[in-house]
Amino acid sequence: MNHLTEAQVATRARCGYIDEDPVFQIATKGGFHLVVRVRKAARTTETLGAGSNFSIARHIAEKQHPKLVLSGLRKSEDHLTMAGLAFGRRLTALLRARGV
User: Fold this and answer.
1) Spatial CB neighbours of 49, under 8 Å, sequence gap ≥ 6
2) pLDDT for res 5
3) Regions in the chain scoring below 50 on pLDDT
4) Cβ count near 13 (within 10 Å)
5) Rounded CA separation 34/51 (Å)
6) How far apart are CA 68 and CA 31, in angstroms?
7) Burial, 24: exposed, middle or buried (Cβ in 10 Å; 0-12, 13-18, 19+)?
8) Rg (Cα) of the chain, in Å, rounded?
9) Cα–Cα distance between 13 and 33 in angstroms, integer?
10) What angle do CA 44, 73, 32 make, to 5 degrees?
11) Beta strands, E only, the chain
12) How far out from the chain centre does Cα 89 lie?
């Protein structure tokens, strides 16, 4: 299983929660964006959404996880494209299938 290293991460910020677990949005230096749940009890992570920008990753995460509570949307990223959304959905499914 492949994991991101600190050297690959450009930004990381807490963006919400599911139940008692914190949720983070992560951007890589290569422009890849993730929404990730940190399961405290199991000490594992779960990819909730992925895409070419945060709005796509967050949209996918919100649709698949109704209990997800997110903080406000970033103003510069408040639009979605159909192609970007389709790619993000496929990417999220692939990451989840691989346990990333």
Assistant:
1) 34, 35, 56, 57, 58, 59, 60, 61, 62, 64, 88, 92
2) 86
3) 1, 75-76
4) 10
5) 7
6) 24
7) middle
8) 13
9) 12
10) 55
11) 9-18, 21-28, 33-39, 44-51, 69-70
12) 11
32 token code pair: 């890849």
Alpha carbon of residue 16 to chain centroid: 11
Per-residue pLDDT at 75: 46
The span from the CA of 36 to the CA of 13, in Å, is 10
Distance in angstroms (rounded) separating the CA atoms of residues 20 and 1: 26
Q: What's residue 49's pLDDT?
A: 92
Q: First vs last Cα of the chain: how many Å apart?
A: 7
65: exposed, middle or buried (Cβ count in 10 Å: 0-12, 13-18, 19+): middle
CA 66/CA 14 separation, integer angstroms: 18
Q: What is the per-residue pLDDT for 74?
A: 53
Is 0.90 surpassed by the pTM of this model? no
